[in-house]
Design a protein that fits this description.
single chain; alpha/beta; Rossmann fold; 8 helices; about 15% strand
């Protein structure tokens, strides 16, 4: 096996929702493997992730924007290509969550979650793939799915619907774009220590129930996604198309 196939030297990436949490860990992992990385978040600054990437001797920039706004997707791809010259890797990580009983769930929350967690994934993938096909060099699109791509969850109907959609969209796009040398795959993280799971971790009963079911005996950390992300964004995964890889401490196998 040639370990060079896991390197990303000369590749240019865009990672959404990479100001902190899972996205920041993935962005830094790609940079350490050799990629230049454009980072994105809702906040006005990059929270130190751009500087961390630059310390890896890689180029970086920060793009602020709300993915519920359709115009932001086009702007992000354009800025990445303008800065780096191409977009070879797209990681659709950004996501939001709202918790409420389905009978009370507001249409406004439903629409916002679907816009950010699913519609923006499609639009960014479409824009990136157009650039990849035009340049004829293929590329990698990595979507961040969820355990709720497979399970229904509780009090998160919009999030579950969107993440199930991400898994199916991953397969659909892979079917169309594999012939162009574009690999579309996804990672389904397990229960991770991020802002999105703060409410669960603060509920002692629910936290204990979840922990008991994880064979690895712990919640995941953002860095636990690094290896899978680099693999699925590198030449090492060139024959992997339409796969949803669970990185969940064994949760789904329990």
């Amino acid at each position: 096996m040639d370990l060079q196939t896991f390197q990303l030297i000369g590749k240019n990436a865009l990672v959404t929702g990479s100001r902190k949490g899972l996205g920041a860990a993935i962005a830094l992992a790609l940079a350490r493997a050799g990629a230049n990385v454009a980072c994105h978040g809702r906040g006005p600054t990059g929270n130190g992730v751009v500087e961390a990437i630059q310390r890896c001797d890689r180029k970086s920039l920060y793009i602020s924007g709300d993915l519920a706004d359709p115009g932001v997707c086009e702007q992000m791809v354009e800025m990445t290509v303008d800065r780096f010259g191409s977009i070879d890797i797209l990681v659709n990580n950004a996501g939001i969550i709202r918790r409420a009983p389905a009978i009370e769930f507001s249409l406004a929350d439903w629409n916002e979650i679907l816009a950010v967690n699913l519609t923006a994934v499609f639009r960014l993938s479409q824009l990136a793939a157009r650039n990849m096909i035009r340049h004829g060099k293929g590329g990698k699109i990595l979507n961040i799915a969820s355990l709720l791509s497979f399970q229904g969850g509780i009090l998160v109907p919009a999030y579950a619907a969107a993440k199930a959609g991400v898994a199916q969209l991953t397969r659909a796009l892979a079917n169309e774009w594999a012939a162009h040398g574009i690999n579309v795959n996804a990672i389904a993280p397990g229960y991770m220590v991020t802002d999105n799971t703060a409410a669960l971790r603060q509920d002692a009963t629910r936290y204990g129930q979840i922990l008991e079911r994880i064979p690895a005996g712990r919640w995941g950390n953002p860095e636990d996604l690094a290896g899978a992300a680099v693999f699925l964004c590198s030449e090492a995964s060139d024959y992997v198309h339409g796969h949803v890889l669970a990185v969940d401490g064994g949760w789904l196998g329990r």
